[in-house]
Amino acid sequence: MKNFWPGLAAEARSKLKKPIIALAPMAGITDSAFRQICKDFGADLVYSEMVCVDGLHYKSKKTFELLKFSKKEKPIVIQLFGSKPQLFIEAAKIVEKLGADGIDINFGCPAPKIYKSGGGVKLMRDLDLCYQIIKAICDAVKIPVSVKIRSSINSLDGKKITALDFIKKIKDLPISAIMVHGRSYEKGFGGPVDLEIIKKVKENFSGLVLGNGGITTPEKAREMLDITGVDGIGLAQGVLGKPWLFEQVKEYLKSGKYKEYIFPQIKKVALKHAQLNFKLKSKQGILEMRKHLAWYAHGFQGASALRQKLIRVENFREIKKIFGFIK
Q1: From the CB of residue 95, how many other CB atoms can be counted at a distance below 10 Å?
Q2: CA distances (Å), origin 13, targets 17, 149, 169, 170, 317
Q3: Strands 76-81 vs 232-235: parallel, antiparallel or unpaired
Q4: pTM score
Q5: DSSP string for 290-309
Q6: Are 176 and 39 in contact (CB under 8 A)?
Q7: Separation of alpha carbons 89 and 52, rounded Å
Q8: In Å, how far from its chain's centre is CA 257?
Q9: What domains lie within the chain, and their CATH numbers?
Q10: By the number of CB atoms within 10 A of the CB, which of 45, 93, 114, 237 ranks highest?
Q11: Crossing angle for the helix pair 163-170 and 195-204, nearest 10 degrees?
């Protein structure tokens, strides 16, 4: 099996001890600025936003922008989505040439746009095609290949196709890691997470297994690790407006305690995030920050009124003024 971080020096690899606390891929969220903020708070591994293989094939400038990353973000895994094996091969070679540490294939996204295109979790309904895509990429590149899947999806004839069916199908392929979102396609992002199916995947897969879904607190992180026995976790919605969750999880696993962030600290994190996004994307970065700023401004008295101001910001100076850093 391929070393999951082959391009890193031994000293750097030694820092990635289990359990691995990773930033899971999120479309429209895990861009370079957010990945860097999460690394500041201790993320061991970060995933890119979903990158469309069709977009790379047709030389979409917007799609190629999603591939940009800094050395600070390494180790970084670029996640690809699509449905055509040949286009995955082309995209994988581009990603490898850019110096990414790994390629992840999305077999789990339930978003209607992705589903209708034939990608994401819809691919789990065609395990033969899943196999073809994975094999094509593994044969085409030398860097590690991983996958992200869901606990299950119902086929059109009503039969349930589970994560274990997926594992059984691809067991002879050199997959380095699997991230399992513990909810079915039908449940989307709500409801309880099936920890038992994640545990069974861990018991039946020889590579790294990362548990994902519903991890919003350090306590939830420990529950995932203790019950499933996974090698690590992928934090997703739990870090929206709360990137310090990485730090809190590590503190809690080590000492059983963790510190909460108060609003003066939160403002500084939000401002740093906004400044970085502005540096990378100019005004567009500020507009994209609106949702992040709304997530940061949550859970305290007066937060609702503050959010109404933040979701309308047009420039970095406005953000500083609203947060009280300038008059």
Answers
A1: 25
A2: 8, 25, 30, 27, 40
A3: unpaired
A4: 0.93
A5: HHHHHHHS-SSTTHHHHHHH
A6: no
A7: 12
A8: 25
A9: 10-255 (3.20.20.70), 263-322 (no CATH)
A10: 45
A11: 10
What is the Cα–Cα distance from 313 to 221, expressed in whole angstroms?
A: 34
User: Which token pair is 317?
Assistant: 């100076």
What is the separation, in whole angstroms, between the first and last Cα of the chain? 57
Look at phi and psi of residue 48 and say left if phi exceeds 0, alpha if psi is from -120 to 50, else beta.
beta
The residue whose two tokens read 């540096």 is 279
Annotated catalytic residue within 38, 109, 130, 138: 109
Annotated active-site residue 130? The verdict is no
Nearest to 70 by CA among 41, 27, 99: 99
Q: Taking a C-beta distance cutoff of 8 angstroms, is the pair 25, 108 a contact?
A: no
Distance between CA atoms of residues 60 and 126, nearest Å: 28
Q: What share of the chain is helix, strand, coil (3-state, %, to 5)?
A: 50, 15, 35
Give how far the C-alpha of residue 104 lies from the chain's centroid of Cα atoms, to the nearest Å: 10
Distance, CA of 325 to chain centre: 32
Digit-by-digit pLDDT tens for the chain (327 residues) are 444 544 443 434 445 689 999 999 999 999 999 999 999 999 999 999 999 999 999 999 999 999 999 999 999 999 999 999 999 999 999 999 999 999 999 999 888 888 888 899 999 999 999 999 999 999 999 999 999 999 999 988 889 999 999 999 999 999 999 999 999 999 888 889 999 999 999 999 999 999 999 999 999 999 999 999 999 999 999 999 999 999 999 999 999 999 999 999 999 999 999 999 999 999 999 999 999 999 999 988 889 999 999 999 999 999 999 999 987
